[in-house]
C-alpha cells in the first residue's frame, strides 16, 4: 500500500492551548481565574482579548485522552506513513509544559503526551508486526546556554541485558549536521536501540531525571533549558506481505520538545514582532520567536524574508519542524491565574502567530 499523501490540513502548524488548574501558591494567594473558555468552541478569552486556536483544553487536570487523540495520535499514525512530526510545549515556567509532555517523573505524572504516544506507537507496531519489521531508536538531549547535553549518557543497560547504545565509544563532541539533501542530524549523542515499551520508558525516565538533577539549582536549570526526546521509527516490509503499510523502507522521526520557560523572551520593538536580547535571555527561544515571526507573517513570507534558523541550536535542530517537511503541533501551556495574565497573553499571542506557519510534509524513504 502506498503511503497516504499529506493533505493541505497536515501542512498547517496546529496550535492547542492547555490551561492548567490554579495550583498551590496561586490558591494560597487567592488568585482569580482570568482565562475563560468559550463553551463548545476552540476559543478563549483573556480580558478584552479573544483568541481562536485549533483546540483549547480547560483546567481538567492531566492531559486527557481527547488531547492525545486530537493533537498527537495523528502524528504517531503519520510516522508509519513515513512523515516526520514534532510536538512543542511552549509557555512560561510553571505553566505545565513538563506535566503536559509527561517527562516530570518526579511528580509521578505518567499520563502526559509522551507516555501516551509511546503506548500508541507500540500498539500499532504490535498490530503490524506480521507485515513489517520495525527498528526503534531514541535519543534525549537538552540544550542549555547553547550547549547540547546528552541526557542518555551514562544510561545503564536496558532491562533486556543488552546495552542499547550504538554510538561510538570515546565520546566525540555533539554536532548538528545537515546532509546534502537538507536533513538535519545530531552526531555524537547516545542513540538507544529499543525493542519494548518498557525500554523506551526507561530511556525517558533516565533522561528526565538526569535533566532535573544535572544542576545544583534544578528549577532554574530545567526552566532555562530545552529538552528534546526523539523517537526514530524505521520500517522494512517483510517479504510476501501484500498488505504492508510501507512499500519498502520508510524512516520517520518524532521530536517531543519541552521548551525553556517563555518568560525569558521579552518582547520589544515598536511592532512587537521582533524579539530582542534582555536579561537572562534564552537564545533558542529568541530565535524560535524570530523564525515563527518570519514564517507566520504572510507578507514577509511572500517577500522571501530570511528565516533565521541558524541563530540558535534549537531552531537549527527544529528546522524541519517549522516551515519544513514535518507535521507540527504546538501546545501552548498557560496558567489561569490573574497574576500571570501578562505572560499568558504573551504566550497566546506567540502561539496564535505560529498557526500561520505552513509546512510541506513529505514521505521519508
Ligand atoms: P513547567 O514545566 O511549564 O515549568 P510544570 O509542568 O512543572 O510546569 O508544572 C508546574 C506545576 O503545576 C507542577 O507542580 C505541576 O504538577 C502542576 N501542574 C501543571 N499542569 C497541571 C495540570 N494540568 N493539573 C494539575 N497540576 C498541574
Ligand atoms: Mg518544566
List the helices and strands and how they pair.
Layout: H1 8-11, E1 14-19, H2 24-28, E2 35-38, E3 43-46, E4 49-52, E5 55-57, H3 65-79, E6 85-90, H4 97-101, H5 113-128, E7 132-144, E8 147-150, E9 175-178, E10 184-187, E11 192-194, H6 197-212, H7 218-224, E12 226-237, E13 249-258, E14 267-268, E15 274-275, H8 283-296, H9 298-302, H10 313-317, E16 327-334, H11 341-354
Helix pairs in contact: 3-5
* Unreliable residue runs: 160-169, 266-280
The percent range for helix content is 25-40%
**Helix/strand/pairing class, anyone?**
alpha/beta
| Small molecules (ligands, ions, cofactors) in the structure | adenosine-5'-diphosphate, magnesium ion
From the spread of the alpha carbons, the general shape counts as globular
Please report the total strand number as a whole number. Answer: 16
Oligomer: single chain
- Specify the number of helices: 11
The major pleated sheet works out as: 9 strands, mixed
Rounded to the nearest angstrom, the radius of gyration is 20 Å
Distance N terminus to C terminus? 14 Å
Mean pLDDT: 82
Strand content: 15-25%
Structure report:
This protein has 365 residues and is α/β, with parallel strands linked by helices. 29% of the residues lie in helices and 24% in strands. Mean pLDDT is 82; it is low at 160-169 and 266-280. The two termini are 14 Å apart. 45% of the residues are buried. Strands 1, 5, 6, 7, 8, 11, 12, 13 and 16 form a 9-stranded mixed beta sheet that branches. A 3-stranded antiparallel beta sheet has the order 2-3-4, with helices on one face. It contains 11 helices and 16 strands. The protein is globular, with a radius of gyration of 20 Å. Magnesium ion binds at residues 97-98, 222, 258. The site of magnesium ion (MG) has 4 residues, from helix 4.
Amino acid at each position: 500500500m502506498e503511503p497516504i499523501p499529506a493533505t493541505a490540513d497536515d501542512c498547517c502548524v496546529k496550535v492547542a492551548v492547555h490551561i492548567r488548574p490554579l495550583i498551590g501558591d496561586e490558591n494560597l494567594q487567592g488568585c482569580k481565574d482570568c482565562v475563560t473558555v468559550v463553551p463548545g468552541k476552540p476559543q478563549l478569552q483573556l480580558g478584552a482579548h479573544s483568541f481562536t486556536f485549533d483546540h483549547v483544553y480547560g483546567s481538567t487536570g492531566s492531559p486527557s485522552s481527547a488531547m492525545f487523540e486530537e493533537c498527537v495520535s495523528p502524528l504517531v499514525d503519520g510516522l508509519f506513513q513515513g512523515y516526520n512530526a514534532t510536538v512543542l510545549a511552549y509557555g512560561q515556567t510553571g505553566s505545565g509544559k513538563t506535566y503536559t509532555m509527561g517527562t516530570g517523573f518526579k511528580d509521578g505524572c505518567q499520563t502526559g503526551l509522551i507516555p501516551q504516544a509511546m503506548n500508541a506507537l507500540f500498539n500499532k507496531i504490535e498490530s503490524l508486526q506480521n507485515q513489517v519489521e520495525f527498528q526503534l531508536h531514541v535519543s534525549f538531549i537538552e540544550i542549555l546556554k547553547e550547549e547540547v547535553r546528552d541526557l542518555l549518557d551514562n544510561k545503564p543497560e536496558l532491562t533486556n541485558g543488552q546495552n542499547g547504545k550504538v554510538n561510538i565509544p570515546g565520546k566525540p563532541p555533539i554536532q548538528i549536521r545537515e546532509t546534502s539533501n537538507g536533513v538535519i542530524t545530531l552526531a555524537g549523542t547516545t542513540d538507544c536501540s529499543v525493542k519494548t515499551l518498557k525500554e523506551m520508558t526507561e530511556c525517558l525516565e533516565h533522561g528526565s531525571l538526569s535533566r532535573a538533577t544535572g544542576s545544583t539549582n534544578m528549577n532554574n536549570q530545567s526552566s532555562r533549558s530545552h529538552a528534546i526526546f526523539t523517537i526514530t521509527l524505521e520500517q522494512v516490509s517483510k517479504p510476501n506481505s501484500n498488505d504492508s503499510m510501507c512499500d519498502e523502507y520508510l524512516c520517520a522521526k518524532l521530536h517531543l520538545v519541552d521548551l525553556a520557560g517563555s518568560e525569558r523572551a521579552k518582547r520589544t520593538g515598536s511592532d512587537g514582532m521582533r524579539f530582542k536580547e534582555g536579561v537572562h535571555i534564552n537564545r533558542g527561544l529568541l530565535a524560535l520567536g524570530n523564525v515563527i515571526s518570519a514564517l507566520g507573517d504572510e507578507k514577509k513570507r511572500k517577500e522571501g524574508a530570511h528565516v533565521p534558523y541558524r541563530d540558535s541550536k534549537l531552531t537549527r535542530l527544529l528546522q524541519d519542524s517549522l516551515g519544513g517537511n514535518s507535521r507540527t503541533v504546538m501546545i501552548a501551556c498557560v496558567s489561569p491565574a490573574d497574576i500571570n495574565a501578562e505572560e499568558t497573553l504573551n504566550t497566546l499571542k506567540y502561539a496564535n502567530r505560529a498557526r500561520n506557519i505552513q509546512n510541506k510534509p513529505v514521505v521519508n524513504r
